[in-house]
Amino acid sequence: MTATHTRTSTPTAPSDRKTTYREAMREALREALGTDERVFLMGEDVGRYGGCFGVSLGLLEEFGPERIRDAPLSESAFVGAGIGAALAGMRPIVEIMTVNFSLLALDQILNNAATLLHMSGGQLPVPIVIRMTTGAGRQLAAQHSHSLEGWYAHIPGLRVLAPATLTDARYMLAPALADPDPVLIFEHGSLYNASGELPADAGPVDIDHAAVRRAGTDVSLITYGGSLPKALAAADDLAGGGISAEVVDLRTLRPLDDATIGGSVARTHRAVVVDEGWRTGSLAAEISARLTEQHFYDLDAPVERVCSAEVPIPYARRLEEAALPQVHGIVAAARRTVGDPVPASGADETKRQPVNREGGPR
Fold this sequence. Notes:
Blueprint: E1 17-20, H1 21-35, E2 39-43, H2 59-63, E3 68-70, H3 75-87, E4 91-98, H4 99-102, H5 106-113, H6 116-119, E5 129-134, H7 149-152, E6 159-161, H8 166-171, H9 173-178, E7 183-188, E8 195-198, E9 211-214, E10 219-223, H10 228-240, E11 245-249, E12 252-254, H11 258-268, E13 271-278, H12 283-295, E14 304-308, H13 317-323, H14 327-337
Parallel strand pairs: 2-3, 2-4, 4-5, 5-7, 6-7, 10-11, 10-13, 13-14
Antiparallel strand pairs: 1-8, 6-12, 9-11
Helix pairs in contact: 3-5, 10-14, 11-12
């Protein structure tokens, strides 16, 4: 591939400024394309259309069609082409519209990208980055709304990332491209319009460890991606009732950061795992099992899970809302763990007293 539209450099020094998740992702792509001629972006509608969610808008004009490559509707073909390019020394970024469509490329991801390094005795690294949208909440119906990242987190040989903040959206791509293993980045569709201040001292992002987004002492809310804002809102609600919730953002779904997860539970002694995936066989199930295996004697209550209803995600707005984890469900689960369940009527507005652990079993 010749880089006829290569930019020599695009310094994007971080500054304290307002931006959106979408713009942060685009800035990360622009930086990667501008600093490494081996990097190119490939996927359906990433060029002229600017990406189905607008993430790559304008990059075709900046970098040209050899670096921003529109691909036909054939996920297996263009993911396979990306794997081949990675084997040949390039640094491809492949975009798949939604995680639902990624199943058409599952053979390439599982049987080639994830296995070649191991099967070749370390001779064939596959440094490809595959980005895709995940999650529901936008009335796009079942075939565009599922959360299947837990399936990919099941596969050895892959690193699986789920940026939930502006900083992670901006600064996860560079370490992902530097990783010799295939990296999958799951971008929750509800986050693209999220806006806020990107801190001046943001980045680089540590993709090996989870992050404690809010400190607490009574219960750990463990989550990632699009569920992070809901967990933080639930923590605010719980604080109003005297319950101090710590919020852990997994950030990396494979490998899981057992130390940060376990450290939080060792402090709070209770855990609620919030996962937009289905409950059965979910990432939440894996985390719950690990906590039971590794921290059984730290736990004062069974681990609670707040997951999506086990149905194809509905199109109708109220049904979709009912199928997804919501703030009130997270609050209710957290209150159960501290022995302060919400009455069945759900009408209890009484503020509870702070938890008195001195009188508890510990």
